[in-house]
Amino acid sequence: MKTDFIHKPLNLPTDDLIEELLAFEGGPAVIPEDVRRTNFPIITKEDVIQMFVSIQQDGDQVVDEFKEAYRRYVGANYAIATASGTSSLHLALVGVGVQPGDEVIVPAFTFIATAQAVVAAKAIPIFVDIDPITYGLDPVQAEKAITKKTKAIMPVHVHGLPADLSALRRLTDKYSLRLVEDASHAHSASIHGQVAGSIGDSAGQSLMADKNFPVGGEGGIAFFKEKEDYERALHFLDASGIDYRMSWIAAAFGLSQLERLPYYDAIRARNAAYLTNALAETKLFSGPFVPDGYKHSYNMYRVKLSPERLGLDDLEDYRVKDAVQQLINAEGVYAREWQNVPIPGHLPFKNRKGFGKGYPFTLSDRKDFGYELDRFPVTLNMLRNSLTICRELRTPIEYERIVAYALAFKKIDANPHIIRKLVERGDNLKVLYERDARLG
Ligand SMILES: Cc1ncc(COP(=O)(O)O)c(C=O)c1O
Question: Which residues line ligand 1 (CB under 6 A)?
Answer without folding.
Answer: 84-86, 110-111, 113-114, 156, 182, 184-185, 206, 208, 218, 220
